[in-house]
Amino acid sequence: MPKRNIGRTRREWLRLSSEERNMAIEQIPYYEGLANIRYYKQAISYLADKCSLDEEDGY
Prior knowledge:
The protein has 59 residues and is mostly helical. The protein is 51% helix and 0% strand. The model has no long low-confidence stretch (mean pLDDT 78).
């Protein structure tokens, strides 16, 4: 998967609290397991929208 918006993504990452960062990291196995990458969120959108807070029961 090509890297996109690396600078913007890094800025969003630095804005997150340590708890929010840990929650986002915990979601990585779920996204690695998806077969169809067509519907992946870009990292910048995932972090900016704080999608890790929307997830129930870790997934």
